[in-house]
Design a protein that fits this description.
The protein is an alpha/beta fold and 154 residues long. It is 14% helix and 32% strand. It has 2 domains: 10-71, 2,3-Dihydroxybiphenyl 1,2-Dioxygenase, domain 1 (Roll); 89-145, Signal recognition particle alu RNA binding heterodimer, srp9/1, CATH 3.30.720. The two termini are 24 Å apart. Pfam families: Glyoxalase.
Length: 154
């Protein structure tokens, strides 16, 4: 890596209701809240934008930034499906996928696949178990539990 090679600092997700997104990411998934507040949103290039934000610890110095635009109001999600250009997902490594899925099910959140998918093949993905779920704004969130001895994120 050179001094000009970018490194991931954070991923930003726009949400309609910051409290609902915090209930999902912080309360259900257990991501620590690092900072929360309100600010003028000059960097987005939107005239007179004002937003509420929360920064969540995603591990290894990386963060998830939740943004609720108050002016102009965040519109309901019209994100393309994960399989379409412009669609995407956030992947989070976890230590106990089954325990987390039980907690999510109690809150009415269910995997898009029904059950975890186990990956087979070479490299760090071999034996990984994963599911996709939707957050309150229909952002796709991949939850991954890597096999013992593999690259573990959680």
């Amino acid at each position: 890596m050179t001094s000009t090679t970018p490194v991931l600092d954070h991923a930003g997700l726009t949400c309609a209701d910051l409290a609902a997104s915090l209930a999902f990411y912080h309360d259900l998934l257990g991501m620590p809240l690092l900072e929360q507040g309100e600010a003028q949103a000059r960097a987005a290039g939107i005239e007179d934008a004002w937003l509420a934000f929360a920064m969540l610890d995603a591990g290894r110095g990386q963060m998830i930034e939740l943004l609720e635009y108050r002016r102009p109001r965040s519109a309901p999600s019209v994100a393309p499906p994960v399989s379409s250009a412009g669609g995407g997902h956030v992947a989070l490594g976890v230590q106990d996928l089954d325990g987390l899925l039980a907690r999510l099910a109690e809150a009415g959140v269910h995997p898009l696949t029904g059950e975890p998918v186990t990956v087979s093949g070479d490299g760090h993905w071999d034996g990984a178990r994963l599911v996709y779920v939707l957050d309150p704004d229909r952002h796709v969130v991949e939850l991954i539990q890597f096999a013992a001895g593999s690259r573990i994120h959680g």
